């Protein structure tokens, strides 16, 4: 009777036992001013530093040779040329996507025991994010049924890329240079403006006008923000390290845009795939995406039918002007639609509701 044997590999992930600390610097300055026309103005500047941001470090990645410093990030070595022999197997080309596991460090040191291990990563709390912002808000309290409020935020946030903070399949592109994965935060919007207003029709003395026109409330919200910041991915395993997701492209032209006002947003000639066995020169989240805006209106009124009976009408319109509001363009370089905007936010949406209260 023959002997049945099998072999398996596993991925290992460790989480460091450490205290997550957050340090926040309180607002460095505040100013409030109330004018005679019931206008309140607030000016606030805030600074915050967050310590203990989760990061993932991969401990068992493919062998590239000697450890790299920051100045060597574009010359990161893999096993060049060919043929070569790994664990008794001859490979015509030393580094390919087909022998990723055979080039892992533990396998090269001990191909018998090391073959049981796949990805090994460690979660740490050594990341740092920084936020600086200036907030200006203005509010005009209700005068003759009209109230207006507005606020403007100018801010900047820098931190570790979320791809590397929460992706269990990978860590920093260059383990010895974690700062290479610092970039604009996913939530970073440099400028944000909000405007809200509401107006209510007065109590008319004429009985007919009071029946038809009193109590209507019109409310509006307008929001504008600069775009988020995109990461340009290769979509290929150019580094030959088994991690396609976080690999970034090379930027070869200073201006990455084609026509920021059209659907062809990025210039494909501004980017290039890194050479095999190397890491691209781009940082994460450093290409500005299209700006975003929203304009919504609502109209409502409550009709008193009897002492304890009311009918409430409400109508709402989203994207009132039915304008094109573009999504981000395709940001994977090997895609046929790279740099093109292929989707958009919803067109005008209207909804009506009638509620009877008794």
Short characterization:
This protein is mostly beta strands and about 350 residues long.
SSE inventory with pairings:
Elements: E1 10-15, E2 23-34, E3 39-58, E4 84-86, E5 89-91, H1 105-109, E6 117-143, E7 146-160, H2 162-166, E8 182-184, E9 191-200, H3 207-213, E10 217-225, E11 229-230, E12 250-251, E13 271-272, E14 287-288, E15 292-306, E16 309-318, E17 349-357
Parallel strand pairs: 1-6
Antiparallel strand pairs: 2-3, 3-6, 4-5, 6-7, 7-8, 7-9, 9-10, 10-15, 11-14, 12-13, 15-16, 16-17
Describe this structure in words.
With 358 residues, the chain is mainly β. The protein has two domains: 16-60 and 122-357, no CATH class; 61-119, no CATH class. Helix content is 5%, strand content 42%. The protein has three helices and 17 strands. The strands form four sheets. Strands 1, 2, 3, 6, 7, 8, 9, 10, 15, 16 and 17 form an eleven-stranded mixed β-sheet that branches. Strands 4-5 form a two-stranded antiparallel ribbon. A hairpin with a 2-residue loop joins strand 15 (292-306) and strand 16 (309-318). It is elongated. The model is unreliable at 1-8, 14-19, 33-37, 63-77 and 164-169 (pLDDT under 50).
**Helix proportion range:** under 10%
Mean pLDDT: 80
What is the overall shape?
Answer: elongated
The arrangement of helices and strands along the chain is: EEEEEHEEHEEHEEEEEEEE
């Amino acid at each position: 009777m023959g002997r049945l044997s099998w072999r398996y590999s596993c991925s290992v992930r460790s989480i460091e036992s450490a205290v997550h600390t957050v340090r926040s610097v309180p607002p460095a300055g505040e100013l409030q001013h109330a004018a005679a026309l019931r206008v309140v103005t607030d000016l606030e500047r805030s600074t915050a530093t967050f310590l203990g941001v989760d990061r993932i470090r991969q401990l068992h990645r493919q062998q590239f040779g000697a450890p790299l410093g920051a100045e060597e990030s574009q010359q990161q070595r893999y096993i060049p040329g060919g043929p070569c022999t790994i664990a008794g197997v001859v490979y015509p080309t030393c580094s390919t996507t087909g022998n990723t596991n055979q080039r892992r460090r533990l396998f090269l040191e001990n191909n018998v025991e090391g073959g049981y291990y796949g990805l090994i990563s460690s979660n740490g709390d050594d990341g740092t994010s920084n936020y600086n912002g200036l907030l200006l808000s203005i509010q005009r309290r209700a005068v003759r049924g009209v109230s207006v409020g507005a606020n403007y935020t100018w801010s900047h946030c820098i931190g570790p890329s979320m791809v590397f903070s929460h992706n269990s399949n990978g860590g920093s592109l260059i383990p010895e240079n974690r700062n290479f994965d610092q970039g604009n935060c996913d939530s970073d919007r440099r400028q944000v403006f909000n405007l809200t207003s509401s107006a209510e029709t007065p109590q008319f003395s004429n009985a007919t006008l009071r029946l038809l026109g009193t109590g209507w409330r019109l409310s509006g919200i307008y929001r504008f923000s600069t775009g988020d910041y995109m990461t340009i991915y290769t979509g290929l395993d150019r580094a030959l390290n088994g991690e396609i997701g976080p690999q970034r492209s090379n930027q070869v032209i200073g201006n990455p845009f084609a026509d920021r006002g059209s659907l062809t947003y990025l210039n494909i000639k501004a980017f290039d795939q890194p050479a095999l066995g190397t890491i691209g020169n781009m940082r994460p989240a450093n290409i500005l995406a299209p700006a975003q805006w929203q304009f919504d209106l609502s109209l409502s009124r409550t009709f008193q039918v009897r002492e304890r009976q009311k009918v409430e009408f409400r109508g709402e319109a989203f994207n009132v002007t039915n304008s094109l509001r573009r999504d981000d363009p395709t940001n994977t370089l090997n895609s046929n639609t790279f740099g093109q905007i292929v989707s958009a936010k919803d067109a005008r949406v209207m909804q009506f509701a009638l509620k009877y209260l008794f």
